[in-house]
């Protein structure tokens, strides 16, 4: 896998920032030109059939990545958009989705370390009766007893973060979702920090919705998110932000007749955005060719190289089997400052969240880079 870095356009230096933005595949410029710009230039409005093929291919690649049907994916501009869409679609079908009596407050439960934007979505839907409930930040996200205690009668939806952005902690989605099913609670999983770098089989999880983004480990650039909707429940969902591409037949053009698309595309909306998905398609194809299992194993190998010299300096121990592709390292303030300065001098790309530095290990990172970072830790 040491040669995989030649498949990506890498900034000069050590790029350890894939948890923020994945590097662009070398083929992206040329392929996007062929699939998006050339049809536009040569055909104008007649480019639409080719453009829509991009969306079909995008969903097909997601199906391969997650072991699911392409029909059950729908493009979304972001994870937040997908969550907003899904929660609003539940309003008309509350009695169909739960054995509990209807209540005025409809609670969405998530861990306090979930990405803040998800909480903002719930708070923004207060007028629809939704209320945010948090599992305290100092509680392990995998503490099943804590989930059990917080899954009270008013909780309609549990929002599970597969890999937490600040800590890198990997959640046991299968166990948490099984508990939610036992309590008749709907489950939504955020895979923005795991898609591509952690192998995912949706069938094993048996959840209701997954939401993701291509900007990070999938190396697809910003603007191309996605949602997967469990086909078992799709007909009970009635999205509110609909448009002609939410229609069973978008080209019927009868303003007096609307029928929802049979599958996840009912969440699509109006005239679709194409360019972000043309860009993202190349990234997802590249990751599928490499294989998320291979990427996962490569990332773990490099993490172990770093931790061999870093472990003694960490305030919070890291088990590589319990995190995603990112090492979130907590050190004493003097050492943290020293580490940050040394990494910058070495030309490393990384970021800081509070009292930790985040260092991510993708397929294009090398053993030599991991050894370099390990040596920096050793010199602290």
UniProtKB/TrEMBL annotation:
GO terms for cellular component: cytoplasm. InterPro entries: Aminotrans_V_dom, Kynureninase, PyrdxlP-dep_Trfase, PyrdxlP-dep_Trfase_major, PyrdxlP-dep_Trfase_small. It holds the Pfam family Aminotran_5. GO terms for biological process: anthranilate metabolic process; L-tryptophan catabolic process to kynurenine; NAD+ biosynthetic process. SUPFAM superfamilies: PLP-dependent transferases. Keywords: Aminotransferase, Hydrolase, Pyridine nucleotide biosynthesis, Pyridoxal phosphate, Transferase. Gene3D superfamilies: Aspartate Aminotransferase, domain 1, Type I PLP-dependent aspartate aminotransferase-like (Major domain). GO terms for molecular function: kynureninase activity; pyridoxal phosphate binding; transaminase activity. Residues 100-350 form the Aminotransferase class V domain. It comes from the Bacteria. This is Aminotransferase, class V. It comes from Paraglaciecola mesophila KMM 241.
């Amino acid at each position: 896998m040491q040669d995989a870095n030649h498949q990506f356009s890498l900034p000069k230096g050590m790029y350890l920032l894939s948890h923020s933005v994945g590097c662009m595949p070398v083929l992206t410029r040329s392929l996007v030109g062929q699939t998006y710009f050339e049809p536009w230039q040569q055909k104008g409005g007649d480019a639409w059939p080719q453009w829509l093929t991009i969306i079909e291919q995008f969903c097909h690649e997601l199906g391969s990545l997650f072991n699911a049907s392409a029909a059950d994916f729908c493009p979304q501009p972001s994870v937040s958009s997908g969550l907003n869409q899904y929660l609003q679609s539940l309003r008309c079908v509350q009695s169909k989705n739960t054995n509990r009596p209807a209540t005025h407050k409809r609670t969405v439960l998530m861990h306090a370390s979930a990405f803040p934007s998800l909480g903002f979505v719930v708070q923004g839907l207060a007028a629809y009766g939704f209320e945010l409930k948090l599992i305290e930040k100092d509680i392990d996200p995998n503490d099943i007893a804590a989930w059990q205690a917080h899954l009270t009668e008013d909780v309609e939806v549990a929002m599970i973060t597969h890999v937490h952005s600040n800590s890198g902690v990997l959640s046991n989605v299968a166990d948490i979702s099984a508990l939610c099913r036992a309590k008749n609670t709907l489950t939504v999983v955020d895979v923005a920090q795991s898609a591509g770098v952690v192998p995912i089989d949706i069938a094993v999880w048996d959840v209701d919705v997954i939401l993701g983004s291509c900007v990070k480990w999938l190396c697809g650039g910003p603007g191309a998110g996605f949602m997967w909707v469990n086909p078992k429940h799709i007909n009970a969902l009635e999205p509110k932000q609909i448009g002609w591409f939410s229609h069973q037949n978008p080209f019927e053009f009868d303003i007096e007749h609307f029928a929802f698309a049979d599958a996840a595309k009912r969440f699509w909306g109006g005239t679709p955005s194409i360019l972000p998905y043309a860009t993202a398609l190349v990234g997802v194809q590249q990751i599928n060719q490499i294989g998320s299992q291979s990427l996962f194993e490569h990332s773990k190998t490099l993490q172990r190289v770093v931790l061999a010299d870093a472990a003694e300096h960490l305030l919070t121990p890291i088990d590589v089997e319990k995190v995603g592709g990112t090492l979130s390292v907590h050190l004493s303030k003097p050492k943290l400052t020293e580490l940050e300065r040394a990494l910058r001098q070495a030309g490393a790309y990384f970021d800081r969240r509070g009292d930790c530095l985040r260092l991510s290990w993708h397929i294009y990172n090398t053993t030599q880079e991991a050894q370099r970072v390990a040596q920096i830790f050793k010199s602290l």
